[in-house]
């Protein structure tokens, strides 16, 4: 973990710890946030996302690879929200069967920070998406 990431986590923990119950309730009253897989974020992670949202209203979040699997691409230059996830034994539904042993941080992105990945061509057995087209064109022109 980078020093910058450690500092961000420390700042978030302090902000969360310093919130009064009424401030937590006000953040929670904005509404729960769901993941791209349809699960609701925990109250704790919902509050964390709202603390980082700078007045935006996140609704559906997912990790970088989760958005790719859902047919979307995180827009270039977008910064996500740090949340914590538990590590422990899970049942067949993916739910924890015991209290979590540890927590780790990850980054999630709101759907507004993504765009649809439109398939535009196949090249050498690989699918080329519209979000990749400008990058590929620039590379082709640079190699010409």
Summarize the structure in words.
The protein has 144 residues and is α+β, with helices and mostly antiparallel strands. The protein has one domain (3-116). The chain has five helices and eight strands, in the order H-H-E-H-E-H-E-E-E-E-E-E-H. The chain has helices spanning 3-17, 21-28, 43-52, 64-69, 130-143, and strands spanning 34-35, 60-62, 72-74, 81-87, 102-110, 114-116, 119-123, 126-129. The strands form three sheets. Strands 1-2-5-4 form a four-stranded mixed β-sheet. It has a two-stranded antiparallel sheet with strand order 3-6. The radius of gyration is 18 Å and the shape is globular. The model is unreliable at 131-140 (pLDDT under 50).
List the helices and strands and how they pair.
Blueprint (H helix, E strand, L loop, with lengths): L2 H15 L3 H8 L5 E2 L7 H10 L7 E3 L1 H6 L2 E3 L6 E7 L14 E9 L3 E3 L2 E5 L2 E4 H14 L1
Parallel strand pairs: 1-2
Antiparallel strand pairs: 2-5, 3-6, 4-5, 7-8
Number of strands: 8
Oligomer: single chain
Which secondary-structure class do the elements indicate? alpha+beta
Count of individual domains: 1
Largest sheet, in brief, is: 4 strands, mixed
Number of helices: 5
**Unreliable sequence segments:** 131-140
Compute the average pLDDT: 82
Helical content class: 25-40%
Distance between the termini: 40 Å
Outline type: globular
What is the element string, with H for helices and E for strands? HHEHEHEEEEEEH
- Main sheet: strand order: 1-2-5-4
Computed Rg: 18 Å
User: What amount of the residues lies in strands?
Assistant: 25-35%
């Amino acid at each position: 973990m980078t020093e910058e990431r450690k500092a961000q986590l420390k700042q978030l923990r302090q902000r969360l710890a310093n919130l009064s119950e009424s401030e937590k309730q006000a953040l929670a009253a904005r509404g729960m946030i769901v993941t791209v897989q349809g699960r609701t974020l925990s109250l704790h992670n919902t509050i964390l996302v709202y603390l980082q949202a700078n007045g935006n209203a996140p609704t559906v979040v997912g990790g970088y690879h989760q958005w790719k699997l859902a047919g979307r691409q995180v827009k270039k230059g977008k910064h996500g929200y740090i949340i914590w996830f538990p590590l422990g034994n899970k049942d067949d539904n993916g739910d924890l069967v015991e209290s979590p042993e540890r927590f780790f941080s990850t980054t999630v992105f709101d759907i507004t920070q993504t765009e649809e990945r439109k398939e535009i061509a196949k090249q050498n057995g690989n699918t080329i998406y519209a979000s990749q087209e400008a990058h590929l064109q620039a590379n082709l022109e640079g190699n010409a």
